[in-house]
Amino acid sequence: MKCPRCGYRINSMTEDKVKLMREDYPKAFLPWTPQDDEQLSHMAAAGKTLVDMAKALQRQPTAIKRRIDLLGAQMVEPPAATAPVDYLPE
């Protein structure tokens, strides 16, 4: 198997790890498209979580974070969840 990005030959142990990773994240280790970058930028600006963005883009959360940093996209923190009044300590 060759790396889709650089063409470097990947050894069989690494190939197995890539296959395993792609069971959960089908686009793991594949090149990013301009459409992926645009979707990521919009989701980050809308305050989506890393996990939500990872599910939508079918990539690992760490890959999402690295790509946000690379693009210089602004990631808005989602609003903190508030506990129902019944659950607030007295």
Key descriptive features of the protein:
single chain, 90 residues, mainly alpha, 4 helices, 0% strand
Question: What does this molecule look like?
Answer:
The protein has 90 residues and is mostly helical. It has one domain (12-77). It contains 4 helices and no strands. It has helices spanning 12-24, 34-45, 50-57, 61-71. The longest helix has 13 residues, at 12-24. It starts with 11 loop residues before the first helix and ends in a 19-residue tail after the last helix.
**Could you state the order of secondary-structure elements as H and E?**
HHHH
Spans of 5+ residues with little confidence (pLDDT < 50)?
none
Taking Cα atoms only, what radius of gyration do you get, to the nearest Å? 17 Å
First-last Cα distance: 60 Å
**Structural class based on helices, strands and sheet pairing:** mainly alpha
The tally of domains stands at 1
Strand content: under 5%
If helices are DSSP runs of H or I spanning 4 or more residues, what is the number of helices? 4
The residue fraction in helices comes out at 40-55%
Residue-averaged pLDDT: 83
Sheet with the most strands? none
Sum up the overall morphology in one term: elongated
Q: How many β strands by DSSP?
A: 0
Would you kindly provide a brief summary of this structure?
By secondary structure, this protein is mostly helical. It has 4 helices and no strands.
Task: Give the secondary structure arrangement, pairings included.
Elements: H1 12-24, H2 34-45, H3 50-57, H4 61-71
